[in-house]
Specification:
The protein is 41% helix and 19% strand. It is of the alpha+beta class. Strands 7-4-5-8-9 form a five-stranded mixed β-sheet, with helices on both faces. Strand 4 and strand 5 form a beta hairpin. Helix 2 crosses helix 8. The longest helix is centred in the middle third of the chain and has 21 residues. It comes from Lentinula boryana. Its EC number is 3.5.4.16. Belongs to the GTP cyclohydrolase I family. Keywords: Folate biosynthesis, Hydrolase.
Amino acid sequence: MTPSHSDLLAESLSKLEASQKQVNGKVDPCHSQGNSGTIGTPRIHEGYGFRPPSGVSTPLIASATAASESLVPDSHGLGWPAKSTYSRLTATPEEKTAREKKLTEAVRTILDCIGEDPNREGLLKTPERYAKAVLWMTKGYEDRLADVINDAVFAEDHDEMVLVRDIDISSLCEHHLVPFTGKIAIAYIPNKLVLGLSKLARIAETFSRRLQVQERLTKQVAIAIQEAIKPRGVAVVMEATHLCMTMRGVQKPGSITTTSCMLGCFRTQQKTREEFLTLIKR
């Protein structure tokens, strides 16, 4: 009888856990075998949730590799929860209504402070609309990674690059609360497990629907994929235009910001990195 996907996945996970216990040294992650016992496989976090050991935060960590190694499981299945994330995640319907009302009143205050009349016809419902909109634009805070991935992890003996590029991304700059938009390319080299292609885009969407800086967003996407399936390497490149640079401040329309994060063999192997960079430019 041909084994099912679930049986193959269970077998692969078992081998990965066994290899972790048999760590005796390190080899090139691009050419090592997941069940060889010669390279350590980080522990698979139940529910895919994780956070820094210091507590709940969304830090910009200088080393993505160090960040991945220092993560601990998050009991709620969230990735880098912020200070008030848990209260938003567990809010009752009454608390959600109260939060929206509080936001609405805050927007009315803003309109009044800039010299507008919150009671004129065109602005009468603007505070309520914006409150709902900003809650939607930041819904990534309450997305559980287990729900995002939704068991779309499959056992597959594929050891070549998987790349999804030109994923549209929009987020809010945490410094000025104005949008930045662009495209992101995500690649990984499997280690016996592959992730449903749409989940790469969904992971990017989850972390973009927060107050962000592009540098952190790029790293969070890469580390989330690393934590989910423990591939041999992950590469993420993002290009975006920031309205805080184009419509205010320095006012430079057309300027593009590029950020990247390379983990595993994409970081250690120049040829692998160059192949990825060549593919995303085509």
